[in-house]
Structure formats: structure tokens, C-alpha cells
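User: Hand in any protein.

Assistant:
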Amino acid sequence: MLWAEKYSPQSLKEVAGNEPGRQELEKWALEFERGKTAKPLLIHGPPGVGKTAVAHALARQYGWTVTELNASDMRSAQVVDKIAGATAGSKGLYGETRLILIDEVDSVADRGEYPALLRVLKDARQPIILTANDYWNPKLSAIRLACKPLELKKVNSSSVLEALEKIAEKEKIEAGELAKQIAKNSAGDLRGAINDFQACARGKFVTASRERRQNMFEAVRRVLKAQTFGEAVETADSVDEKIDAFLLWIEENIANEYEDAEEIAKAYDRLSRADVFLGRIKKTRDWGFWKYAKAMGLAGVALSKKKQYYKYAAYSFPALLKSMGQSRASRALLKSAAAKIGAKTHSSSAKARTETAPFLDVEKSASFFGFEDGEKSLLAELYKNGADNCGKAKH
């Protein structure tokens, strides 16, 4: 069991750091304890500071039951109405207060879910807590108005060290210099620091640093040289990259590490299966596929080799990420132009880009759509034969 879950705080007093935030949270909870109501709470802050943990700690402290929703649960307005709406209106069967916890609300992409969610927030008689990493995400503009904000900041290194030492005491292990090094390099990510401490205590990693982005090459090395399922999969917790981006790093460097053609073929086959699962997540929003994507893309690749390679391999930055970085300005211009076309044609930007832009006479339509010089040049370059395409489409 992960120590971050095993030793999750049982009350607000046990939450590490963020004392002002904890005090505000307790004041908010006392309103409901006195029989009153308060606006839903939007807890925001960087990953790993304890947004979800503090909500569960509050519920345990006051004996509230928790109904938790995440991005996959909120894949439709009907689900939001059925689950959240039903629990927000009244107390539980035995009169207990119900806390509705909506985790990572900023990761929900479908616009259709927000009207239903806003109705729930407006009509709720039970406490509701939402968590978000990015408070200023444009998608949250209406939700921000319906909620009271509460920011949790990065946990300072002394609080991280104190938490690690308490865990070490319960696990009957020596915290020592290892805990100090992890706390120092935690960058305010308490959950990540606990995961690192557990991994290092098991002898899985040779470093306690959480300078994740700088150590991406080290993370790739861990996966490709891993000899067990657990070693490979746990590496995903040590990097500050989304799994699809991390798999691009793995894809780029398989052939740099493995030498046998059969090993390389098997590794790419398993990587392609991981990509299938990631595609299903995007299509269905069922995050249950997540574990399969990690298993195939990390452990599957690691266990494709027939033998352990002890050589030094020079790993490369993913070519796709490099090309995307170089084309960022062009993609921004195309996005801007598509939005202008969509506004005039009453269609989405995606439809404007695929169904309208290829058939435009850019020079003649530039003033109508309000294209700037950069947008006009890019469209002219991408769709050189717009008028011709239009004629062909008629046929």
C-alpha cells in the first residue's frame, strides 16, 4: 500500500503545512455543523499539496460521509445530476452530513457537464468541495463565481521532513539523511516526497531528488533497465510528465537501449497497445484504462528484453516533442484563424479548420474574417489551392 494513502491525515490537525488554509476550511465546515449552509469550496493549488487529502481529513474529523466524483465519473450531465444532485439536497439515511467531493474539476473538458454541475452548486444544501490545479483555467470561470476559493500552497521543506519522520517512526525505519534530502528537494510536493521516501526505503531508486523534468533521462533509464513490473510502473510517479508524453520518451529510446530485433519489436508492440488504452481514455473518459496503459507502456516495454543491459546508452529527446515545440507559433496562428472562421460561420473551431478553411480564397475573405497578416500567410501556405478545392468539392 502506498504510504501516502496509508498515512493520510485523519483530522485537519494532522495535515502538513497550510495552517491558514486549514483554519479557513474549519470555519467553513462549522457553518454546516451549526445547521447553516455555505457556498461550495473550490480548493486549488499545485499537485501534491494535499487538496484531496485535506477534504477527506475534514470529513473524518466531523464524521461526514463522502461522495467522491472525478473526471471519469463526470463524463455526462446525467451522471452529475444523478450522483451529485441526489446527495447535495439532503442528509444521509441516519441524518449524517454528506460531503460531495469533486476532484480535479479543471480536467473535465466537456462543456455539457458544466450547466448540470452549476445547478448542483447553486441548489446544494450539503457541503461541496471541488479541487483544481489551475484556478484560473478559463473553463472554470462560471464555477469560480459559484464557489468560495481556498488556496493550498506548496508545503515547506520543514513540514515535509516532519511528515516523513512520522512515517519513518511508524514504519520502524531510520529517516536520517535520506528524509532530509528528499524534503529539501521536494519542491513543495508532499505526496511526491512520500512516494520517493517509500521507493528509496525499498531500495528502488538511487536518488532522492524531485527535480523531475531535469531527470527525465534518468526516468527513461529506470524504465528501460527495470527488471520487475513494479520498478517500471512506479517510475511514472517520479516524473512530472503526463503518461502520453512520458511514453514518447520511451518510444524514442527503445532502440538506443535494446539491441536484439525481437526485443525491439516486442517493446514497440506493447507500446502501441498502451497507446490504444490512452485512446480509449480520451474517447470514453473511463480512467479505469489508466492502469493498463501504464502496465503495457512501462512494464511491458521493460520486460520485453531478454537480458539486462549494463552498457551506457545515450538517450535522445523525443523528435515529436521537438518538432511540436518548433511549430508552436504556427499552431497558435492556425488555432486563432480557425476560431475567427468558426465565429463567422457559427461552427466549432475544429469544423472550421477541416471543413471551411481548406476551401477559402484567403485573399478575398481576409477582411470578412478579420485575419491578421500572420494568419493570412499561414492559411495561404497550408491551403494554396482553396478556390480550386472549392470547385472540386462541387463535383
